[in-house]
Amino acid sequence: MKIAVAGTGYVGLSIATLLSQNNEVVALDIVPEKVEMINNKKSPIRDKEIEEFLQTKKLNLRATLDYKDAFVGAEYIVISTPTNYDDEKNHFDTSSVEDIIQKVKQLGINTTMVVKSTIPVGFIKNMKEKYGIDNILFSPEFLREGKALYDNLYPSRIIVGEKSARAEKFAELLKEGAIKKDVVVKFMDSTEAEAVKLFANTYLALRVAYFNELDTYAEIKGLNTQDIIEGVGLDPRIGTHYNNPSFGYGGYCLPKDTKQLLANFDNVPQNLIRAIVRSNRTRKKHITEMVMRRNPDVVGVYRLTMKADSDNFRSSAIQGIIERLKEEDVDVIIYEPTLKAEEFAGCMVVNDFDKFSKMSDVILANRWEDTLDQVKNKVYTRDLYSRD
Questions:
Q1: Based on the domain organization, do 264 and 168 belong to the same domain?
Q2: 360: Cα separation from own chain's centroid
Q3: 146 & 230 share domain
């Protein structure tokens, strides 16, 4: 069948690649360069499996700038456009999703829209009422940046926000493209599915915040963080995963999803969700204070990216620390090979590592890489395990 995918970020491009193994997929984007790259079998994002599939697999996939070309004749339209969090309005900016809904309605087609973008709890219900439509549902995505296609090929679970034949058919399309067998599939109403997405990401943020606060305690008290974490993790109810201290949770999902869930808790009793959001700010403040204890004139920031093997640094935790350091009147320089600009956030970009390390009094590294071995006496990091 023909399937359209609106948006070619991590979610959209991984879904488009997955489904194009067995279906005709037309990916829609508004950036001509991305469309051209996809049509030339090149990935506009860094993702090992996507890059390999585009180069080596026989995929029925093409990209377009024309929404009519993408949508007309499609049995499903997967919406995976960005929904950034608006701090002033205290909710997701869902205008890009609504734009697709409006375009589908204007075309007069009854194609089933499947929203994969992260949205507030109650969004699908509101869209049905606002536009007088019923051909829309939500299916949350659970992906890691840089591992997006891998996580679709080996999904932890598939959740579709509707109990219907069309929902079952869409779930089968996802299962058909996956390598993993016996994938758990769960159907529920879209509102519950929306809540699953936000609560799942907020739990992950909670776990990051927990081990970061453990690390802060150990650092202030002069204790061995690694011994404490590994002793705690030996309890099988806690485990040894997702426990590597960092400069705070960041990236495209966790900061905005925790804030959105907190906003959704309006008039609902809670303490924990607000504490998770606050804990992340406290951690960045602590990291800044520990760096300032070294009395640096110049702080070098080693990498803006959130994860190893990633080229994405949207809302990375290090950026909040950069702002705090600048408020302390410290000069900040940045080493980020994926960045071609000479300046970022008012800071000089120095991508000659030798020059960067000589200029820096302290090198701030959220994640350790072998390159830092030669200047380890200058490095401040909380990374214990050299992994995400």
A1: no
A2: 30
A3: no
Could you tell me if 376 and 311 lie in one domain?
yes
**Candidate list 253, 273, 330, 332, residue with the active-site label:** 253
Beta bridge partners of 332: 299
- Residue 363: in which H helix or E strand, if any? strand 362-365
Question: In whole angstroms, what is the distance from residue 367 CA to residue 302 CA?
Answer: 9
Tell me the residue range of the domain where 111 lies.
2-188
The tens digit of pLDDT for each residue in 28-74 reads 999 999 999 999 999 999 899 999 999 999 999 999 999 999 999 99
What values do phi and psi take at 335, rounded to 5? -110, 110
The Cα 149–Cα 141 span in angstroms is 11
pLDDT level of residue 309 (50, 70, 90 thresholds) = low
CA 317 to chain centre: 13
Asked if 347 is an active-site residue, the reply is no
Q: Count of domains in the chain?
A: 2
pLDDT of residue 18: 98
